[in-house]
Amino acid sequence: MRSTLEILQAAKQATASLCLLTTDKKNAALEAMASALLGAANNILAANAQDVEASRARLGEVMVDRLTLTSARIEGMAQGIRALIDLPDPVGRVIDSHTREDGLRIEKIGVPMGVVAIIYESRPNVTSDAAALALKSGNVCVLRGGKEAYRSAAAIVKAMKSGLRTVGLDENLIQLVEDTTRESATTLMEAVGYVDLLIPRGGAGLIRTCVERAKVPVIQTGTGICHVYVDASADYDMALSILENAKTSRPSVCNACEVCLVHKDIAADFLPRLDERLATLRAENGKPAVTFRCDAASLSLMPHGMAAGADDFDTEFLDYILAVRVVDDVQAAIEHIAAHSTGHSEAIISRDEEAITRFTTAVDSAAVYVNASTRFTDGGELGLGCEMGISTQKLHARGPMGLCELTTYKYVIRGKGHVR
Amino acid sequence: MRSTLEILQAAKQATASLCLLTTDKKNAALEAMASALLGAANNILAANAQDVEASRARLGEVMVDRLTLTSARIEGMAQGIRALIDLPDPVGRVIDSHTREDGLRIEKIGVPMGVVAIIYESRPNVTSDAAALALKSGNVCVLRGGKEAYRSAAAIVKAMKSGLRTVGLDENLIQLVEDTTRESATTLMEAVGYVDLLIPRGGAGLIRTCVERAKVPVIQTGTGICHVYVDASADYDMALSILENAKTSRPSVCNACEVCLVHKDIAADFLPRLDERLATLRAENGKPAVTFRCDAASLSLMPHGMAAGADDFDTEFLDYILAVRVVDDVQAAIEHIAAHSTGHSEAIISRDEEAITRFTTAVDSAAVYVNASTRFTDGGELGLGCEMGISTQKLHARGPMGLCELTTYKYVIRGKGHVR
Asked: Which residue of A112, A354, A363, B203 could cross-link A138, Cys pair, CB 3.0 to 4.6 Å?
């Protein structure tokens, strides 16, 4: 087994060749990686079957589903890699430029971070997604997946490295951490001088540990306690449709709505309709019904509601559960969000421009929606074409992180003997 | 004395009012802060005299000079604040926008970080600079200056707060940490949920401590081991003029050159001229002469050279000292820089476009110069108009940090009932 330090040293050394690659070469590598992945599908499925077999007893059904690969999922991973080929290369893009009166030419140019480390859990597709995003953005990746998915990750990485070799590239551009104990994660968090950016992708515990312990730069991703505020001026049908979409279209994801705040003037009118739409009608149509965790004011208005517990306004349910609270006005909604949000995505449903402007100005989250579902917080939906995760921090990147967010910049300044 | 936690709570609370301020209001506040500073000049000078008196025995001459205020310096501080009035407001700027085919409108908008904490040392002007930059960029600042400058900082902050009051603003927008023990610095570093960005400004020790210990987002500033590489194709006169400027125009600053790398083919020709220009001629003209710390190959070529010690290629001299090394070619220069640079500023002096492209592509520093002095790495010189410090990290901001670099962004997305 190679030590994590050896892997980091090899990664750092490989950055030198990567910054000189042309866009065409990187795209050829992506195509070769996708082909190699498909070519190795049987090996990958066999390795994955071993992972699943070894974990079945310990993991719940949802986790086993996340871990399990199929031919269709491998096909999807290859498509994910190929989708990056057509996206613009973020390396070398001129972000800004000007020439001073004295002739000094200043350009601000997009460049790779260097070594990007990703600590993730059991989903094998993160292995190929992260490697491909890193390559296109000119970064060497150090992948540290979960122990339960190690065989799958190793088979995927082996295939991608063979893809790199077919186009004559250094297979050190993709690094898989071989030690899956806690120690290797700690090594990555403390690898000052080796890791230029650490991205934890997974549960709240992993992310908190990285933020608290890391000495290298981290981007915090993921947790989403997303709010929808229904203003007194809201169109009820629109509000109901947005809430149903934000809560039920995919409850397990971070951009799903967890909390509904309703203006007091419409609570008696609106909340019974919300209950009917998300619980009664869905049940009648054979869809999973939503249950509600209600504050005192909303409880009596919602037949499918139960009294909210102490933590219900601070919980990412990731389930068919919605916390509901009646608020005095848009300002009270803003204050509730400031106190309880994770800074991911929040929405206002309103026809009152003053309330809308107040909400979009004062709510301090990565994405603030007006009359739209929180579910659009996604790299593809927002026009980035892809994503490495959704940042809930303010430094460097906020919201979906695409290729540009995986780069930094440098100033390149040309003179003719200019001195100051 | 207010505790640091109380100060952080007041700062966080004050962010809510700041994000709603118009540009005009912020500019009026800056003008009022500058006027109040000038109006309080006598109080500030008296407080500063006490600081200087108390520290004179303990501090060296350079430190006493840094700490000492004069009427002219206070005038300069007021001018520094007023200079921000004409700069564009980074808050609310539309960084990117598009409307999807389905009508969903996506805007990426510049917004404040929230609370920006600055830990600095003895220069009193940092107090007013940082407060003014934070205000214009919509941030509440928490200032934690050095113990030896506390009376000066308190007098400056008192004046600026009175300025805020004259235009009807909350004086909590500017916070001075009252505890000047190490404990308050630690509190700031660990204030997750209160501090959105921590900027250490000072010596290498302070910066290292912040990077290693902070749990809040940090931007590393300052240390500059800057290199000038003289290629075989260089114009000698240009190289000499750039090296003299980069080394001697202000040796105490972070963008001064500390190391000269010379291509082996011209070493015998060029290095004696460099010695003459920076040592002999300067001495003859009554200017401080440069001394050289030479590798084996350059030592015999430089009459004012001495053999370099083990650390001389990893030292920020901040003095009339230049380390000199002969390298095989541009690739060897790139590798030396990769091993020894702090990622601040490096220059190539060359007429060979291939060597230039190789250097600008492969050197991974905030600013890479072609035929120009490293001394231009400065917010004013590069067109940012001002600066909070020079970032030597890659996350978020690189090089000089102006007003935009003190902001983050959010997506504001408007629909008409859009669901996914």
From this structure: A112
One-letter amino acid for residue B168 of the chain: G
In a domain, A335, yes or no: yes
pTM, whole model, 2 decimals?
0.93
Residue of chain B minimizing CA distance to A250: B420
Same domain, yes or no, for A200 and A285? no
Shared-domain flag, residues A185 and A234: no
For residue B419, give the nearest of A211, A373, A415 by CB distance: A373
DSSP B276-301: IIIIIHHHHTTSPPPEEEE-HHHHTT
Instruction: Residue A208: give its domain's CATH number.
Output: 3.40.605.10
- pLDDT at residue B120 in the model: 93
Residue A279 is classified by DSSP as I
β-strand pairing of A226-230 with A257-263: parallel
Per the structure, the count of domains in chain B is 2
CA atoms of B234 and B239, how far apart (whole Å) = 7
Q: Are residues B174 and B85 in the same domain?
A: yes
CA distance A155 to chain B (A): 32
Of B165, B201, B170, nearest to B185 by C-alpha is B201
Task: State pLDDT tens for residues B91-110.
Answer: 999 999 999 999 999 999 99
State whether A406 and A307 are in the same domain. Answer: no
pLDDT surpasses 80 at B222 = no
Q: What is the pLDDT of residues B171-200, one digit of tens each?
A: 999 999 999 999 999 999 999 999 999 999
Q: Is A17 a domain residue?
A: yes
Hey, are the CB atoms on B410 and A399 less than 8 Å from each other? yes
Does residue A98 form part of some domain? Answer: yes
CATH number at residue A303: 3.40.309.10
The answer to whether the CB atoms of A372 and B413 lie below 8 A apart is: yes
Distance from CA of B414 to the nearest CA of A (A): 5
Which burial class, exposed, middle or buried, applies to A36 when counting CB atoms under 10 A from its CB (0-12, 13-18, 19+)?
Answer: buried
Indicate if A259 and A315 belong to the same structural domain. Answer: yes
Interface TM-score (ipTM) > 0.90: yes
Asked if the Cβ–Cβ distance from B364 to A415 is below 8 Å, we say no
Q: Are residues A186 and A83 in the same domain?
A: yes
Q: A156 and A137 share a domain?
A: yes
Domain that holds residue A248: 226-376
Q: Which residues contact A161 (CB under 8 A, 6 or more apart)?
A: A171, A174
Q: Which residues of B touch A242 (CB under 8 A)?
A: 417-419
Q: Are B311 and B337 in contact (CB under 8 A)?
A: no
Can you give the pLDDT at residue A208?
A: 86
- Percent of chain B at pLDDT exceeding 90: 89
Q: Is there a contact between A415 and B369 if contact means CB atoms under 8 Å apart?
A: yes
User: For A360, which residue in chain B has the nearest alpha carbon?
Assistant: B412
Quote the mean pLDDT of chain B.
95
A216 and A233 part of one domain: no
CB A338 within 8 A of CB A344: no
Q: Do B212 and A212 touch (CB under 8 A)?
A: no
Q: How far apart are the CA of B388 and the nearest CA of chain A, in angstroms?
A: 16
pLDDT at A64 over 90: no
